[in-house]
Amino acid sequence: MNNIFEITPFAFEYLYKEAFWLFLLIPIVLFWYLYNESNVFKNINFSSLQNFKKKSFNFIAFFRHMNLFVFIIGLSFVILALARPHSPQDIAEYKKKNLEGIDIVLAIDVSGSMLAEDFEPNRLEAAKSISIDFIENRPADRIGLVVFQADAYTQAPLTNDHELLKAVFSEVKTGMVTDGTAIGLGLITAVNRLLETETKSKVIILLTDGVNNAGDTDPLTAATIAKDNGICIYTIGVGKDGTAPYPVQTLFGTVLQDIPVEIDEELLTDIADYTGGKYYRAKKNTDLESIFQEIDQLEKSKVKVLDYKVNPPEKYYGMLLLGILLIAFYKTVNHTFLKSIP
Q: Does the predicted model carry a pTM greater than 0.90?
């Protein structure tokens, strides 16, 4: 059980760090104290041998200085209490409980054509790099990864462990299964991952550079199932217009040959529109970056705070109580044992 009267200042995080500006009062208090100390006694000049005697320790002055030290400590604890201390664990748990994230599945085409070099260094590596940046910007979400060629499979299930997800993502490459582009199969695999969850907001981001030419699942059928289960699909077609340079192995090594860019934009638009998403076309790296940034902003607007009234347990009680007691002690001593008579 957490102790609400803990008073160890460095063990907490503070919600209102602006209150720390009040520590500037301490040098003002010191200046005021030193100024008044210099004017406590009036001097009367008379003949005496007092200065030739050994000086005795002035207990009154010592206790007056110590009493000021008590006041400064008390004031410091009051300021820390005003800054609203909370334990890091409580704040982390509060954020976890009060933010409803989104479940997102990235469905990425890894067919051979994704090696085309109209993106830097190629379409697949650009998609991987930009997707990893997207993952880093979604700390509250569970994210999964589905890859597809002529077949589709789950590369990473929905997870909050984004470091593991990024490591898995970095290992994605072409040639894992038979080459082809099974958009419908990739889409239904992503849908199945989301059907297993109870999160209200579910999203698929489908990225491909081709047409549906493999698999036995119709993409629009998969889109219908997604819509019926409240899943929004964003579709992205990657590839410039016309032709794109593609690396081909020959007897003389790897050479670049222009291949036609064929993206079924009509299909991708229908899938997105039907499920409440949006279709995007990326012709270069910066286009793809902008698309993921736009999706990031669109979906962040759906993250909601479940209960604004719930706050992490307060930890200022001990500091405030100690501060008040020390200041009260200072005032009591100052007006009793250290009281001076004009």
A: no
* 248 and 189 together in one domain: yes
Q: Are residues 154 and 212 in the same domain?
A: yes
Q: How far apart are the first and last CA of the chain?
A: 53
- Per-residue tokens: 337: 């044992």
Q: 178 is in which domain, residue-wise? A: 102-302
Q: Are 177 and 140 in contact (CB under 8 A)?
A: no
Classify 152 as helix, strand or coil.
strand
In a shared domain, residues 84 and 109: no
The CA distance from 107 to 136, in Å, is 17
pLDDT, tens digit (0-9, with 9 covering 90-100), for 76-125: 889 888 888 876 666 555 555 545 678 999 999 999 999 999 999 999 99
**DSSP string across 216-285:** SS-HHHHHHHHHHTTEEEEEEEE--SSEEEEEEEETTEEEEEEEE----HHHHHHHHHHHT--EEEESSH
Within this chain, do residues 189 and 275 fall inside the same structural domain, yes or no?
yes
pLDDT digits (tens, 9 = 90+) for 257-288: 999 999 999 999 999 999 999 999 999 999 99
Helix (H) or strand (E) holding 34: helix 25-37
